[in-house]
Amino acid sequence: MHRPWGGVVPELASREHLAKIEHIVEQALAEAKVTLSDIDAIAVTQGPGLIGSLLVGVCYAKSLSWALDIPLIGVNHIEGHVYSIVFENPTVEYPALALIVSGGHTNIFHIPEEGKYEVVSRTRDDAAGEAFDKVAKMVGLGYPGGPVIESVAREGDERRIHFTKAKISDGKPDLSFSGLKTAVARHIRENSIVPLESGDIPGQEIKDLAASFQAAVVKALIGTMEKLAVELKPRTLIVAGGVACNLALRQAAEWTAKRLGLPVYFPSKHLSTDNAAMIAAAGFYHLKQGKTADLGMTADVTMRLQNMGSGLGESLRGKVRYRL
Ligand code: KG4
Ligand code: ZN
Fold this sequence. Notes:
CATH architecture of the largest domain: 2-Layer Sandwich
Helix content: 40-55%
Radius of gyration: 20 Å
Number of domains: 2
Low-confidence stretches: 308-324
Structural class: alpha/beta
CATH superfamily of the largest domain: ATPase, nucleotide binding domain
Distance between the termini: 30 Å
Strand order of the largest sheet: 5-4-3-6-7
Shape: globular
Number of strands: 7
Largest sheet: 5 strands, mixed
Bound molecules: 5'-O-[(R)-(carboxyoxy)(hydroxy)phosphoryl]adenosine, zinc ion
């Protein structure tokens, strides 16, 4: 539905949410072989995100919670991605360092203990997934760009084009992908690469470009994570979000984790991209903490994972601390 537009169209998304939410809830209950009376609480994405889609979910969740007389929990979408790993990995040992890379967000969180987050790196401009989507669009590979760039990159030579890592002028361990996007556009122009039309098979030039671009993104993300891991000495690494589907990213994270002697946890592919199970998992943690919402709760487009302070090394304090 969004493909012809090369990205998510907010209005279309919220209308579809409205049309499908009831059916999807019914289908999920049927597949799980439970009924609404078996449900103990309702967790819902409160933010950040697109207002229309968030409102559909929040209104529906509030109605269910009220009608069933069970607790309501507002979950931060990004915290949901952090919890997407709980289903298939051993219990996380804290402190942890989590790289959350999606279409809308790219952050590294220091998590001193469960439920406390400190942003130690963030993108200054585009999210990593957004960069994949935009580069795919430039060469006519379609939307969403991540999976298609990854598959085309498999037959490309990542050493063919050298894209330099963006320099962050104030020296913070942040990320930037808009310069990389411009460098890709320049390479396309200077080498007269013609964007593909639908049905065209990508040639070697586009394969090499995809591989070199992907390698540059992976290097920036994992290199920054490694640097922060050396400083912050976490006991667990977490890599999640839609871009965590990318095998090159997973492999680089695994090598880094091995070098550091740390475990690294990923969600499986279907739990990497946006899903409701991760929201339920984060909601379950809050429910155990007694942190529920009342019916006055509403969608929060710019919701932040609060900076709650941590055991962040003094040398880094102030230098790398942000709110999401
Ligand atoms: O987490 P997600 O499903 O939605 C957001 O919260 O944004 O992430 C979607 C993003 C898209 O930008 C998509 O291109 C990217 O994840 N993505 C990938 C791959 N699969 C999805 N990026 C790189 N490689 C992939 N295999
Ligand atoms: Zn997401």
